[in-house]
Design brief:
Strand order of the largest sheet: 1-2
Radius of gyration: 20 Å
Number of helices: 8
Order of helices and strands: HHEEHHHHHH
Strand content: under 5%
Largest sheet: 2 strands, antiparallel
Oligomer: single chain
Length: 274
């Protein structure tokens, strides 16, 4: 056995052992961080960025769809994603697993429940939650109580884990921020302020219902990275167009950005040539 192969075996074995130990420890302790580094987020957009007037109509129409939690992902068509929805199925395969919103107590593991409930209290009362664990095409649903390293996929016909992954990338949030930045007649888009509320509520909804390292949306490091990049891009766009956020939201947001970064560093995808 050559030295290179031996080093690889040791490295992989160590990584798997640490993951196993940490996943077991996660069952008995909160996975939310105790805190994040002090200070404000670094901003990459120092000035306002506004789309061209010719794009305003399309951006406003998209924003209104996102207000109502309607998403068109991976060929789904515009679907209202929510708890308890009936899904159409894929090629004759339909799963009736969408559950009604019965509260965090039934979804979040015990160690993370108190913090999840604290975060959820900051969400506006008229906000309708999104089911982040649902493949809203087939109807199959993963569990928030399953550690991300134990998420199973690729074995059931018609089920596509990329559907919740795609939604949880939150690539629609920068579009909401662009809608907020539009220069337009207020009569054409009186809901401009809703862009800020929806951005804030969706992020709090996600954080409360997706504790770090739990559920389908922490299973792929690339998607974790894409999500936090979209969060930060939208945050910059909102700030550049004059939006402000309350301190409670900013504190939770910055901590979650930090948690995303920690997760990425600890779960880098690896290839022997790169």
């Amino acid at each position: 056995m050559n030295a290179r192969l031996l080093r690889r075996i040791v490295r992989v074995s160590r990584r798997l052992a640490l993951r196993f130990i940490h996943s077991k420890m996660d069952m008995f302790r909160p996975t939310f961080s105790a805190g994040a580094p002090d200070g404000a987020l670094f901003t990459l957009l120092p000035c306002r960025v506004a789309p061209d007037d010719s794009e305003a109509k399309n951006i406003i129409e998209l924003a209104r769809l996102y207000f109502n939690h309607r998403f068109d992902l991976l060929g789904s068509g515009w679907v209202h994603v929510r708890y308890g929805m009936t899904c159409g199925g894929v090629e004759g395969h339909q799963y009736a697993m969408a559950e009604r919103d019965s509260g965090l107590e039934s979804r979040i593991n015990k160690a993370n429940l108190a913090e999840a409930k604290r975060i959820a209290k900051l969400i506006d009362q008229d906000y309708i939650p999104i089911d982040w664990q649902l493949d809203f095409k087939s109807g199959y649903r993963w569990s928030e109580k399953t550690g991300c390293r134990y998420i199973a996929f690729g074995k059931l016909p018609g089920v596509d884990i990329k559907v919740p992954w795609e939604l949880a990338r939150m690539q629609h949030l920068p579009q909401l921020a662009l809608a907020h930045s539009l220069k337009h007649d207020p009569e054409k888009f009186p809901e401009r302020a809703i862009c800020i509320k929806e951005y804030r509520n969706q992020i709090l909804d996600f954080i409360a219902n997706n504790p770090p390292r739990y559920g389908v949306n922490w299973a792929c490091t690339m998607d974790v990275a894409i999500r936090v990049a979209n969060w930060l891009a939208a945050h910059d766009l909102f700030k550049a167009s004059g939006a402000t956020f309350d301190e409670a939201f900013e504190t939770i947001f910055i901590r979650s950005v930090y948690e995303h970064g920690q997760h990425i560093i600890r779960n880098l995808e690896w290839h022997e040539e790169f």
